[in-house]
Predict the 3D structure of the following.
Amino acid sequence: MKSVIVSSSFDNLSSRDMRFLEEASQLGELHVLLWSDEAVRSITGAEPKFPLAEREYFLQAVRYVTKVHFSEAALDPDSLPDIQGFRPDVWCVDEQGASAEKQTYCAAHGIEYSLLTAEQTAGYPVPAPLPASGKKKVVVTGCYDWFHTGHVRFFEEVSELGDLYVVVGHDENIRLLKGDGHPMFKEDERRYLAGSLRYVTQALVSSGTGWMDAEPEIETIKPDQYAVNQDGDKPEKREFCKQHGIEYVVLERTPKPGLTPRSSTDLRGF
């Protein structure tokens, strides 16, 4: 299989970035050259919104990524640094990152240059379910609007309990519960981001109403456990689990050690 490299800051990683990573991974084993904080400042002239450790943590959780490598402080965005023990076969870029200089560099170094167009990365396909492991089934529900490392950490912790099924609230119900202006991102986009993490067995969109809008999906999944964080702990959920013989698990809302706590509400201004 070919080795593919992409090079970027992946600062404030978005659904478009995720689509690019997914399509790039179709070309071979995907390696990410992640720009250091110093490189981001040098290339963009601005401070990174998220520090290197947080950007790395997010990328390591993406199911399409094989390995993350790190740039040095001084980085030419139109060439690739030497990476010990690794030589790419393909350098994949999107339209924004395309350049004649990159093409020239690839031609001189025997590397295939691959451009992914906006048309190729359009839309939000439903991520394919991962094979079930035979462990317990665990379901989580939520809005997952403005996806961030707090969500990644929650999914990581819950996945340690068993195979994780994520049910994303549908747009109409999110507006019902949270009011106008919500959600920021459409249901298919939110499902896509959740389902693109390696910790998630399957991501679905809810079809019910209220705090138990995921009831139809839960009845289909037949989970052993329903996990929530402290913010998502609701009497309706506790009662539902009691009536259906599902273990109810409440986890503390804590970031990955060393990272800043995040919330979608705080990030709305980004």
Remarks:
- Strands lie at 3-8, 29-34, 67-70, 90-94, 112-116, 137-142, 163-168, 200-205, 225-229, 247-251.
- The chain has two domains: 3-115, 137-251.
- The first helix runs from residue 15 to 25.
- The two ends are 38 Å apart (CA to CA).
